[in-house]
Amino acid sequence: MAINKKIIVGNWKMNPVSLKEAEKIFSGIAKGFAVLKKTQVIICPPALFLEKLKKVSTKISLGSQDAFWEESGAFTGEISASMLDTLGVRYTIVGHSEQRHKYTDEEINRKVRGCLASGIIPILCVGETERDADHKYLNFVKQQVESALDKVSKNSLAKVIIAYEPIWAIGKTAVREATSAEFLEMSLLIKKVLNDKFGKSATDTVKILYGGSVNTKNALDFLENGKADGLLVGRESLNPAKFTEIIKTSENLNSLKGPNKK
Ligand code: 13P
Fold first, then answer.
1. Does 166 score more than 90 pLDDT?
2. Which residues are marked as active site?
3. Torsion of CA 121, 66, 50, 163, to 10 degrees
4. CA 54, CA 91: separation in Å to the nearest integer?
5. Whole-angstrom Cα distance, residue 192 to residue 234?
6. Whole-number pLDDT of residue 261
7. Which residues line ligand 1 (CB under 6 A)?
8. What is the mean pLDDT of residues 68-77?
9. Where are the domains of the chain?
10. Which residues pair with residue 42 across a beta bridge?
11. Confidence band (pLDDT; 50, 70, 90) for 262?
12. Is the pLDDT assigned to residue 260 strictly greater than 50?
C-alpha cells in the first residue's frame, strides 16, 4: 500500500449478475484512465469474479467483500483470507454494514486479525445507524474501532485501512448525504482513538476513507475539504464513466500531502 496515495475503492456489492457484464464494467474502468501517480484503485467484485477479473487489467487492484477468520474447515459459504492470498488478492472489506448483522464485534476483530495474519489488507468499515441528538454515535464508532483493532500490533496497523461509512448515508434509501465536515469530524475522532491506543507514529500510517453515496459531484469535497485519504464507492463504481471521473478527481488533486502533514 503506497503511503502517499489516495485510495479509491469500488464496492460492487452483489452486482452485476453475470461474469460477462463484470468483465465489461471492469475493462471499461481500466480503459478510462492512464497510469496513475497519486491514486490507487481497488475494486471489490463478488468473490466468484475475482479470478477472471485479475486477468483483465493489472491497473486495478482487487479486493474481496469479506473474509472469514479461520484458514479452512467446516464453514459453509465462507471464504478465508488465506484463500484470497493464494489467489493474489491483497485487500478485503471487513465489517461492512450490510454484513455486520451476521457477526459480533469480537468476530469482526477476528476477521481483521485473520486478514493481517494472511497478508491481506483489511478495509475495516465503521459507522453509525443514525446521528442521535445526544451524540451517542461518537462513542458507538469509537467502540467499533477499538474492538475491531483489539490485539492488533502497532506494526500491523500500517496495513489496516479504515472506511467511515455512516449507514444513514448509504445506498438508495439514504436519509441524506453526509457532509465533508461530518466526515472530517469523524476521521479526527478515529485518529484520536488510534492515537490513544497505538501512539502517533502508528496512527499517521492509517488511511481513513469516506463511503456513503459518493458520486462525481461530491467526491472532490470529501477528498479536499474532508481531507479523506480515499473513497469507498458503491453504486457509482458500477458505472465506468462515473467511476473513472471519481478516480481522475483524486488523481488531479493538486494539494496532495504526505501522511504526516494532513
Ligand atoms: P453507495 O455508494 O451505493 O451509497 O454505497 C456505499 C457503500 O456501502 C460502499 O461500501
1. yes
2. 96, 165
3. -50
4. 13
5. 27
6. 43
7. 11, 96, 165, 170-171, 211-214, 232-235
8. 97
9. 6-248
10. 9, 61
11. very low
12. no
* CATH (one of 3.40.640.10, 3.40.50.10860, 2.60.40.2470, 3.20.20.70) for 6-248: 3.20.20.70
Tell me what the pLDDT averaged over the chain comes to.
Answer: 95
- C-alpha 121 – ligand 1 centre gap (Å): 19
**Three-state DSSP state, 100:** helix
Q: To test ligand 1's pocket by mutation, which of 129, 162, 177, 213 has the most ligand atoms within 8 angstroms of CB? A: 213
Band of the pLDDT at 1, cuts 50, 70, 90? low
Pocket test for ligand 1, best of 165, 177, 222 (most atoms within 8 A of CB): 165
Cell of 31: 480503459
In a mutational test of the pocket of ligand 1, which residue from 7, 11, 66 has the highest number of ligand atoms less than 8 Å from its CB?
A: 11
Is residue 166 within 8 Å of residue 212, measured between CB atoms? Answer: yes
Q: Is the pLDDT of residue 151 over 50?
A: yes
Assess contact for 43 and 63: CB atoms under 8 A.
Answer: yes
For atom 2 of ligand 1, the residue with the nearest CA is 234
Place of cell 439514504: 174
Q: How far is the CA of 165 from the centre of ligand 1 (A)?
A: 8
Can you give the pTM of this predicted structure? Answer: 0.95
Distance from the alpha carbon of residue 254 to the mean position of ligand 1, in angstroms: 26
pLDDT confidence band for 185 (50 / 70 / 90) = very high
User: Grid cell 466526515 — which residue?
Assistant: 183
Could you tell me the distance, in angstroms and rounded to a whole number, from the CA of residue 258 to the centre of ligand 1? Answer: 27
pLDDT in tens, 219-247: 999 999 999 999 999 999 999 999 999 99
